[in-house]
Amino acid sequence: MAAKKVKTILKLNLQAGAATPAPPTGPALGQHGVPIMDFVNQYNEATKDLRGQVVPAVVTIYEDRTFTFVTKLAPVADLIKQTLKLKKGAANVKKDTAGTLSQAQLKEIAEKKLQDLNTTDVEAAMKIVSGTARSMGVKISK
Asked: Which parts of the sequence belong to the Large ribosomal subunit protein uL11 C-terminal domain (predicted)?
């Protein structure tokens, strides 16, 4: 059997277990002729245990209009918000502080996200996470 020819690869950030055919999902998949409800049902089934989180999906669409997808971990910003129980980051990051991450929390998030980052070094992953935290107005305790 010959390998299927890849038409395109899409990255979608969707609510776990609660994806719908409404934008952004429907239009993104519909323009490539993918059966939208098939994807929505499979994605919701695969992510039903993670409700309330944003779970990115990398969708590979083939020439014959079939698809496969892989779910990734929640974005770093969402993991930080979850850890600190924040609704959102600081509005003005120069003046306001949204919260403070301990070194232990920073390392925990870095280790959790390591497989999705372009490094295998926990120290480097911690720097990536602390950069995201800074951009949200979250301080890192020493």
From this structure: 74-140
**For residues 13 and 41, is the Cβ–Cβ distance under 8 A?**
no
Exposure of 132 in the CB half-sphere (CA atoms within 13 A): 19
CATH code matching the domain that covers 6-71, chosen among 3.30.1550.10, 3.10.129.10, 3.40.50.620, 1.10.443.10: 3.30.1550.10
Q: Which residues of the chain have pLDDT under 70?
A: 1-2
Q: Which two tokens stand for residue 99?
A: 């919260």
CATH 3.30.1550.10 range(s) for the chain read 6-71
Q: What is the pLDDT of residue 90?
A: 81
Cα separations in angstroms, 70 against 13, 61, 88, 105, 107: 12, 12, 27, 27, 25
- Provide the whole-model pTM: 0.72
pLDDT digits (tens, 9 = 90+) for 114-140: 888 888 899 999 999 999 999 898 898
* pLDDT reported for residue 2: 60
